[in-house]
Amino acid sequence: MDGANAARDFLQQHGIAQAEIDKVWTAIALHTTPGIPEFMSPEIALVTAGVEMDVLGLNFERYSAAHPRPAAFKEEIIQAFYQGIKDKPQTTFDDVKADVIKDKQPDFQPLNFCEVIRASRWP
Predict the structure, then answer these.
(1) Exposure string (b/e) for 61-83, b if CB count within 10 Å is 16 or more?
(2) pTM of this prediction?
């Protein structure tokens, strides 16, 4: 959400129309939540598809060219993700970044959707 909010603030400062700001915010906010963006506007779907190809290599075989990667890219990007979320691990609930926290902090106990339901105040 930090990136989505930063993009929103930047675009607002530059007089971009609210509808376009909302689209950018949504694309960034949802890019780590697979399964949703593909059903939204093409721009939002494209951001997620680009991230999935660039970071995860999904559909790699469909592309004829690839940007050269440093030898340690995979571990470096995982570390970069970790640096961005290590101080707020509970924000990874419902997000693929929970896997990053679990990888770097083996004792991390993420929120569990079923436990949240069971612990609700509803009788």
Answers:
(1) eeeeeeeeeeeeeeeeeeeebbe
(2) 0.74
